[in-house]
User: What shape does this take?
Amino acid sequence: MSTVASVATVLVTGFTAWFGIRIFKHQRTSSDIKLALEIFSTINNYWDRINDSNSQHYNYDMGQIFAQFETAARLFNDSILTDDALPILKDHIVEIYTAVESSDEGKNFIRDCVSSPTTFSELRKFLKKHFSTALLAQKHDIEKSRQK
Assistant: This one.
C-alpha cells in the first residue's frame, strides 16, 4: 500500500508542478504582450504627432520614439520579454525606423543624437537581428541610389 501511495504522491506532485509552471508561463506571456502593446501605443502616439503637419515638437517626439525603441530592443535582446511579444513590436519598430532613416530630417536627428558608441546600441543589435530581408533590400537600394 505504501508503494501505491508513494507513486500517487509523485504523480500528483508532478502534475501540480507542471500545472503551476504552465499557469506561470501563461501569466508571463500575458504581461509581456500587455507591455509590448503599451510600447506600441506610445510609439504610435508620438509617430502620429510627427506626421501631423502642425507638429512643432519633432525632436521631442522623435526622442520619445527612440527611447521606446531602445527600451523595447533591450527587453528583447536580453530575453526579458518572451518571444510571444516580439511579433507585436518587431515589424512596427523596423518600419518606423526605416521611414525615419529614409528622410533627411530623420537622418539628421539620428546623427545629432549619437553622442557615444553606445548610443542606440540596443536598437542597432535588435535591427541587425530582426531587419527583414525585404527591408534590407529596400535600404540597400536607397543607399545605392544616393551614391549615384
About this structure: Residues 37 and 142 are 31 Å apart (CA to CA).
